[in-house]
Amino acid sequence: MIEPARYTTVDAALSRTEHAVQAITHLAERAAPGARLGTKGELQEWCGVAKGTFNEALRILQSRGVISVRPGPGGGLFVASPTPIARLGNSILSLDAAEGDVADAVRIRDALDPLLIEDALAHGSATDIARMRADLAAMQRAIDQTDATDFVHSNWKLHATIARVSPNAILKSIYLSLLDLIESHTVSVEPTGEEPLWDYIRQRYQLHIDLVDAIDSRDRHSALRLIHTHNTTQGEGPG
């Protein structure tokens, strides 16, 4: 682990949370995937921030796929092994200063997804399915045009369409509000030109096609399996 004296602040405009995120990110970039960076206590002291600030930084780092946290003896912070969707989250999804809020919103959204899929299975009409397929077509156009920004927004629009099928007004309102929060803090999505990233986006698109097909055919087992795979807080990114 790098000695505390070697860490220097590079931007006085950053918040203390952002400084901690930046410092640990730089530390992780110089280590191999899976490498142990230190305990929470050691790294909190190294960053020179309060416990609450450090925990907020950890949430952001985990949501970006930079680190993993392991409890117990020998635990601590470890460099994550990034997946292609983590690169989507880190490299091309640009957020404003509310990264922690967005990460929390995504976690809650993921927890609500299975409930909305159940409602879509029970209540989805032919008109609802047609709207979902129109959103899928917009996602395909974004892929054809290599427009990552449009792909992400079209993806969120599909989830909003699925949510609107639910007869549960409270559930629907909460979910749509979470989507609005996530989208409102998204500044831009910039393509990196990495082919593995676009391969993953195409895979993600196919997952959504399969999900809509399962809803259309009332295949509950497949739909719930797919939404579990879709879960973006299992080491993946927005989608």
Automatic annotation (TrEMBL):
Asked if Cytoplasm is a keyword of the record, the answer is no
Record's keyword terms, sorted: DNA-binding, Transcription, Transcription regulation
Provide the HTH gntR-type domain boundaries: 10-82
Which InterPro entries does this entry report, sorted A to Z? GntR_C (IPR011711), TF_FadR/GntR_C (IPR008920), Tscrpt_reg_HTH_GntR (IPR000524), WH-like_DNA-bd_sf (IPR036388), WH_DNA-bd_sf (IPR036390)
SMART domains cross-referenced by the UniProt entry:
FCD
- Pfam families in the record, alphabetically? FCD
- PANTHER family, alphabetized: TRANSCRIPTIONAL REGULATOR, GNTR FAMILY (PTHR43537), UXU OPERON TRANSCRIPTIONAL REGULATOR (PTHR43537:SF5)
Protein name from the UniProt record: FCD domain-containing protein
Source organism per UniProt: Nocardia albiluteola
